[in-house]
Amino acid sequence: MKKMGITTAVITGAVLALSGPVLGGEKGGKKHDEVKEKFEMAGAAKITLDQAVKAASEKVPGQVIEAELEKKHETTVWEVEILTAERKIIEVHVDAGSGAVIDTEEKSGEKKKEHKKDRK
Prior knowledge:
A hairpin with a 5-residue loop joins strand 2 and strand 3. About 45% of the residues lie in helices and about 30% in strands. The chain is α+β, with helices and mostly antiparallel strands. A five-stranded antiparallel β-sheet has the order 1-2-3-4-5. It has two domains: about 1-45; about 50-115, Nuclear Transport Factor 2, Chain: A, CATH 3.10.450.40.
């Protein structure tokens, strides 16, 4: 009887160990999708990170603390976060295709200003 309990424990452990990568594959698949999306956004971006930071800094003076490529309302944008002299964090959304500043908003989520530009 004791031998059967040990055998069951060994088989259960083996099944769990082997199923780990299968169950974890979903997480890896999600990460793969995120990487694929980033490649697609980078391919759609016609302006560089440096150009986006320059456009954002011209619109909102301060220290750039973060920038990343994102999708906003089906548009690929550079989201540039700037720390202002007033100690506010402002997000500046720069169209990754045209380089135009689309809008700015305080990090709190509350719209500060919105400047829509005609897209070329």
